[in-house]
Amino acid sequence: MNHIHSIRYAVCRQAYSCPSVVGAILTAVLVAGLILPTPLYGQFGLLGGIQNTLNVINGAIQSALNLLGAVSQSLQALYQQIVWPVQLIDQARNAITDLINQFRGTMQSIYTAAISSATLPAPITLESIIRNRQTNDFPGLNQSYYRAFGALPTADQADALSRNMIDIDDTLALNTLKTLKAADQTGDLILQSGDRIEDEARVAAPGSAPFLTAAATAANIQSQASMQKMLAAMLCQEAARIAHENTVRKRHSILTAKVRQGISDVLRRP
Questions:
Q1: 3-class DSSP state of 156
Q2: CA 124, CA 26: separation in Å to the nearest integer?
C-alpha cells in the first residue's frame, strides 16, 4: 500500500509540475466519455429526469398557465364589454362616417361656391384677386385696386384735406381686403384640419379620444383667433367711416367759412 501511495504521489507531483499533462488527461477523459457508450442504467436515469421535468411542467406550471390564460380572457372581456365596448365603438364610428358623408360635401360646395359678380375688366381682375385665398400677391392687389377706383389726385386737382381723406380711405380699404384674403387662407387650413380630425376619429383606437379632443380644441382656438382678427378689421373700417364723415363735415365748415368770407369781401367793395 505504501508503494502504491508513493506512485500516486509521484504521478500527481509530475502532473502539477507539467500543466500540459493535466490538459492531456482531461482531454482523454472527455473523448472517452463521448465515444464509449453510456451504461444502461445511466440512460434510464436521464430519461427518468426528463420525465420528471415534463411531469412538473404538465402539472403545477400548466395549472398556473391555465390560470393566467383565464385571467387574461377575463380582462379582455372586461375591456371589450365594459371599458371600451366594441359594439358602441362601432356605432360611434358609423355615426361619424354618416355625418361626414352627409355634411362634408355640402359644406365644401357652399364654401367654394362661385359668387363673383363683376362685369368690367378692372373690377373683374380686382375681384378675382380678392377671392383667390392667397397672401403672396398684395402688390397686385394694390395695383388692381387703384385701377378700379382711381389713383390719388394730385395737389392741383384737390385740396390737402381731400387728398388726406382719400389716401387714408384707400389705405384702410386695402388693409381690410388684405386681412380678408389672409382670413380666407386661414379658413382653408382650418377646414383641412377639421377634415383630418374627422378622418382620424373614424378610425381612432379606443383611448385616443383625448388626443383628438386636444387637436380639435387647437383648431377651434385658431379659428377664433382668425375671427377676432376679422372683427378687429371691421371695427377699424367702421372707425375709418366715422372719421371720413367727420372730415366731410369739417371740410364743409371750412368751405362755408370761405364762402362767407368771400361774400363779405364782395359786399365791402365800394
A1: coil
A2: 103
